[in-house]
C-alpha cells in the first residue's frame, strides 16, 4: 500500500469518526473504536495508525465461544460462523491464530484486559488500563451504569451494560460441557496459551 493510499484511507476514517462524534454530541481527544473483530484488521490498523494503542480483551476461550453461540447477532458472513458450536470454535481458532501472527510480526502497542480481572477487581484493572492510555482516574468511571442509562446503546450486550458486575458467566461453559466435548480439542490449546486451567476456573497471569 502506497503512502498516498494510506493517507487517503486515514483521511476517510477520520472524516467518518468526526461524523459519529458529532452525531453522539460528545467531545474529547481520544477515540476508542470498539469491535472485537477488529482483531482481523490489526495489520491494516497498524499500517494506517502505527501509533494506535490496542486494547486486547481476553476471556476463557470456552466461555467466549459459548457466549457467541448463545447470542443472536445481526447476520453477516462473520456472524454466520457463530450459529453452530463447531464453526464458532473454528472461527475463534482462526481469528486468534491471525492475532498471534500480528503480535509476533508487528510492534503493536498492546494492553491485555481480562474479563475475569474486570469482574474480580475493576478498580485496579481500569487503573492499569488508564495508565496505558495516558488518562487520569475519575470517580465517575465506577458509575458506568448511570452513564449507560442516559445513552442509546445498540450492541448485543446493551442489557448487560446497565447491570452490576457479576461473576456468574465465568466458567459458564461447564454447564454445557457435554455439548462442547467435540470442540474442546480446538479450544484447549488456546485455553493453555492464555493461562486458563484446562479443567478449573482458575487462570495464570498472562505473559
From TrEMBL:
Keyword set, alphabetical order: Transferase
Coiled coil: none
Catalysis performed (reactions): L-tyrosyl-[protein] + 3'-phosphoadenylyl sulfate = O-sulfo-L-tyrosine-[protein] + adenosine 3',5'-bisphosphate + H(+)
InterPro entries: P-loop_NTPase (IPR027417), TPST-like (IPR026634)
Keyword Transferase in annotation: yes
One of the Pfam families matching this protein, by short name: Sulfotransfer_3
Broadest EC class assigned to this enzyme: transferase
Assigned EC number: 2.8.2.20
Family: Belongs to the protein sulfotransferase family.
Protein name as it appears in the record: protein-tyrosine sulfotransferase
Amino acid at each position: 500500500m502506497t503512502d498516498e493510499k494510506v493517507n487517503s484511507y486515514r483521511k476517510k476514517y477520520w472524516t467518518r469518526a468526526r461524523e459519529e462524534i458529532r452525531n453522539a454530541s460528545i467531545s474529547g481527544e481520544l477515540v476508542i473504536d470498539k469491535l472485537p473483530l477488529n482483531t482481523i484488521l490489526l495489520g491494516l490498523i497498524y499500517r494506517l495508525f502505527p501509533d494506535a494503542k490496542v486494547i486486547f480483551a481476553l476471556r476463557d476461550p470456552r466461555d467466549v465461544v459459548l457466549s457467541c453461540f448463545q447470542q443472536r447477532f445481526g447476520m453477516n458472513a462473520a456472524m454466520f460462523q457463530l450459529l453452530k458450536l463447531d464453526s464458532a470454535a473454528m472461527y475463534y481458532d482462526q481469528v486468534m491464530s491471525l492475532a498471534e501472527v500480528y503480535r509476533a510480526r508487528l510492534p503493536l502497542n498492546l494492553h491485555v484486559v481480562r474479563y475475569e480481572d474486570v469482574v474480580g477487581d475493576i478498580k485496579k484493572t481500569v487503573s492499569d488500563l488508564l495508565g496505558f492510555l495516558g488518562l487520569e482516574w475519575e470517580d465517575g468511571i465506577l458509575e458506568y451504569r448511570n452513564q449507560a442509562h442516559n445513552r442509546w446503546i445498540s450492541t448485543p450486550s446493551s442489557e448487560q451494560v446497565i447491570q452490576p458486575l457479576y461473576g456468574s458467566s465465568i466458567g459458564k461453559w461447564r454447564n454445557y460441557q457435554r455439548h462442547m466435548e467435540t470442540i474442546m480439542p480446538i479450544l484447549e490449546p488456546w485455553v493453555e496459551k492464555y493461562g486458563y486451567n484446562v479443567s478449573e476456573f482458575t487462570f495464570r497471569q498472562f505473559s
